[in-house]
Amino acid sequence: MSLTNRSKVVSNKKFSFLESLYLPAIFHGMFITLSHLFKKKTTVRYPEVKRPFSPVYRGLHVLKRDDEGRERCTACGLCAVACPAEAITMVAGERQPGEEKLYREEKYAKVYEINMLRCIFCGFCEEACPKEAIFLTDRLVPSQTEREDFIFGKDKLVEPVDQRVDVSKRQSQKVLDFKKDKNQRHNS
Amino acid sequence: MLFLVYKLTLITVILLVSLGIAMYATLLERKFAGFLQDRYGPDRAGKWGLLQPLADGGKLFFKEEYMPNTADKFLYILGPCLTMLVALLTSAVIPWGPPLVIGGVEYTLQVANLNVGVLYVFAIASMGVWGIMIGGWASNNKYSLMGAIRASSQMISYELAMGLSIAALIMMMGSVSLNEIVAQQQGWHWNVIYQPIGFLIFFICALAETNRHPFDLPECETELIGGYHTEYSSMKLGFYLFAEYINMFVSSAVLATLYFGGYHFPFIGRLGLSPNVAAILGMVILFAKIIGFILLFMWIRWTLPRFRYDQLMRLGWKILLPLALLNLAVTGIFILLKG
Amino acid sequence: MEQYLFYGLSTIAVFSALMMVISKKPIHSLLYLLLCFFTLAGHYVLLNAQFLAIVHIIVYAGAIMVLFLFTVMLLNLNIKGEQSKPVVARIVAVVAGGLLLVALVGVLRGIDNNPTLMQPNNQVGMMKNISDLLFNEYVLPFEVASILFLTAMVGAVMLGKSESKVLNN
């Protein structure tokens, strides 16, 4: 059985005189290349034109803030446990009085680092997170020249207050429903 | 004195135009290849990539100059120089347009009106092999030597058929002066109509002599990693690569002159233009023909695969040479019958 | 003007001919010979024999020298591999070369200054005149020469053929 129906049986038949001239075949080939001159080009001119990302694209991570601009992460470490590549490290810290504007919970991540060279962008951290804090976005990990530069700390991961990262595409209906649940209000 | 100034200006202009066209032929080649392959080709340097040749040239200039320490230093440098020199020499005998009349003095647009013009073109074409041979040998590298030997045997083989196809043309024209040949092709009397087989043979041989696809065995990247210029870098490599485009331009010019009526175009006489305007129009027409041929060269390059070495030799010796002889004989018989 | 050109060309010709003999590397002597041929072509042009000059370049520089180059490249002649010749061979070579020189000088002395060649702008060397002579007056020698070439070619093919047969068996 053939996998495709495009297979051809090889024949070693003698060329006819016309075929042995090769000229018809050459002109046929020339015509094929010429026809490609007028076909639609497949090139995407990158910086001007960007290809749309798939809605499930998993790129650079973001650590979300809540509506009041407080960091959502509570340094529970579930993401680090879930991570198959062991790319996530964190150090937890206790919120001091007066820092309520900065951190949502009493416990927060003092250090939160993802090694982008280890990360396989599987998205397990996102699934594991109970606080809706980490998301994979459709941004690309920028290239670096040093290996150390690929360890992204909180300075690069936490979204700036004035430049929120839209992750609504990654929040499934189930998550949105869950957030509306009255008993789970504290998570919204 | 005026004569000298005029000739010098003409030489300079022709050199600059050849170099300019060769320069932009590199861009055209890449653009054309891109379009044939459903891409756009280079379009980042300047509008439509128009500055790309300058960028390429700059890159070649600033690349590291490397010379193998077992190479024959003098010959290693002589190789690319000879190739470039030979490539530029042919343009001297091509009539670029009808004579211009300025202030009652007639200026022919041809550097040297040799009465052995066609033979001169042929002699220079046969010299083309030296630069490649010397460069390939001096590199002291087996790939280079293989490329050089392939180049020379290919050029020698195809020169024969080329010479015979030209011989038929000369018999018809009764002259070897390019000026005379162009003059005889006025209106519709283009040689390609009377000598179609001769033109085909000449065209195939021109492809082989310029080492263009499908005859690029001397430098085939996949087998010989560059062939005769494997060991070359920087502007020496640039000379080799650039000479190929100049050769392409010049052989297109020769093709247009010998078989496609040079600067003639039907009905140009009926427009009733003043001689000078007609001369400039003729020049434009010649350049249009040349660019058409350059495009044809490129079109063939991006369509046909490379010949195998034995196929190349078979085509040259067993097909083109007998065909050219036959063409010569038939032309002779026709001329005899016509009286 | 022509006088200066003549002396310039002659100097280069003699120099390159000497260098061709003196050079240690075969490929260098080959290139000097090539240069020598070009200067000779220049002399032909000075004599207004353009056809001869161009044919000289096509045949010698374009074809025969390339075959020489092939031979030199493929034989891998280098300085180390060169054996010193015995003294007798050297003496014989000198004597033979000297005899050739004497013969050439003798022949050149015999020629009077040919008046037609000495005229400026003589038309003997133009293509039309040469072909008139070749195809009318000297048509028989011309054709005999071409048959000679054909014979040589057939002979070469025969030699190549028999050798390949031996190899195949």
CATH class identity of the domain at 1-80 in chain C:
Mainly Alpha
**And the CATH topology of the domain at 1-80 in chain C?**
Four Helix Bundle (Hemerythrin (Met), subunit A)
Q: Note poorly predicted spans of chain A.
A: none
The SS-based structural class of chain C is: mainly alpha
Oligomeric state of the chains in view = heterotrimer
Order of helices and strands of chain A: HHEHEEHEEHH
Strand content of chain A: 5-15%
What's the CATH class label of the domain at 61-179 in chain A? Alpha Beta
Helix content bin of chain C: over 70%
Distance between the termini of chain A: 57 Å
What's the total count of β strands of chain C? 0
Count the strands of chain A?
A: 5
**Which word captures the global form of chain A?**
elongated
User: How many H/I helices of chain A?
Assistant: 6
Structural features:
heterotrimer, A: 188 residues, alpha+beta, Alpha-Beta Plaits, 6 helices, 5 strands, B: 339 residues, mainly alpha, two-stranded antiparallel sheet, 2 strands
What does this structure look like?
The complex is a heterotrimer of chains A (188), B (339) and C (169). Chain A contains six helices and five strands, in the order H-H-E-H-E-E-H-E-E-H-H. In chain A, the strands form two sheets. A three-stranded antiparallel β-sheet of chain A has the order 2-3-5. The longest helix of chain A has 15 residues. The mean pLDDT of chain A is 84. Chain B has 339 residues and is mostly helical. Helix content of chain B is 67%, strand content 2%. Chain B has a two-stranded antiparallel sheet with strand order 1-2. In chain B, helix 5 runs antiparallel to helix 8. Chain B is globular, with a radius of gyration of 21 Å. Chain B starts with a helix and ends with a helix. Chain C has 169 residues and is mostly helical. Chain C has a domain of 80 residues: NADH-ubiquinone/plastoquinone oxidoreductase chain 6, subunit NuoJ (Four Helix Bundle (Hemerythrin (Met), subunit A), Up-down Bundle), CATH 1.20.120. In chain C, helix 1 runs antiparallel to helix 2 and helix 2 packs antiparallel against helix 3. The termini of chain C are far apart. The mean pLDDT of chain C is 81. The interface between B and C is medium-sized, with 23 and 20 residues.
